[in-house]
Design a protein that fits this description.
Elements lengths: L1 E5 L5 H14 L10 H9 L10 E7 L2 E13 L3 E11 L8 H15 L4 E4 L6 H9 L15 H8 L8
Parallel strand pairs: 4-5
Antiparallel strand pairs: 1-2, 2-3, 3-4
């Protein structure tokens, strides 16, 4: 039996373990630097300005953790409220049993309840099983868009640029 529940602060070690498993699947384990402290602060804080940056669902199959979905609110200047699904992961032993669909359905339900215009996520271009799964749910692939990123030294350099204007 599949059970989807909201993650709690006590799930932080599990969430971190699932993130590592996902990164291993995506061949990016070396890129994971998130700590349990960061996850606790960013996902379970109720401290004013330092509020929650993400929410997380845990999928269990017969009481055993089988996967997770991590998402957060974003805003579309064209359509308003939206949700971004950062990660959806089902452990290999649990794939093919409807767990990924149940997680995605629950995130979609949350988006609908919150009046969101859309739910969006990214998928690696080599991950054909995931792409086929998403397409089977009537998701649309946005071939014309490319994600841009500034991180690490480049982020610090951009933030410290001399030609800043008053905000």
């Amino acid at each position: 039996m599949i059970h989807i529940r909201s993650a709690t602060a006590s799930d932080v070690p599990l969430i971190r373990a699932l993130i590592h498993e996902l990164a291993e699947y995506e061949r990016e384990l070396h890129s994971v630097h998130i700590t349990e402290e960061q996850l606790l602060r960013d996902g379970f804080s109720t401290n004013g300005e330092d509020g929650r940056y993400f929410e997380c669902l845990i999928a269990e199959s017969d009481g055993v953790p089988a996967g997770f979905a991590l998402y957060f609110p974003i805003y579309s200047t064209w359509e308003g409220r939206s949700l971004h699904l950062e990660d959806l992961f089902v452990r290999p032993d649990f794939r093919g049993h409807g767990i990924g669909k149940a997680l995605l359905r629950q995130v979609a339900s949350i988006a609908t309840e919150r009046g969101c215009a859309r739910l969006q996520w990214d998928v690696l271009e080599w991950n054909k099983p995931a792409i086929d799964f998403y397409l089977s749910l009537d998701a649309t692939m946005l071939d014309d868009w490319r994600r841009m990123r500034v991180a690490d030294h480049a982020l610090a350099s951009l933030a410290a640029a001399e030609d800043k204007v008053d905000a």
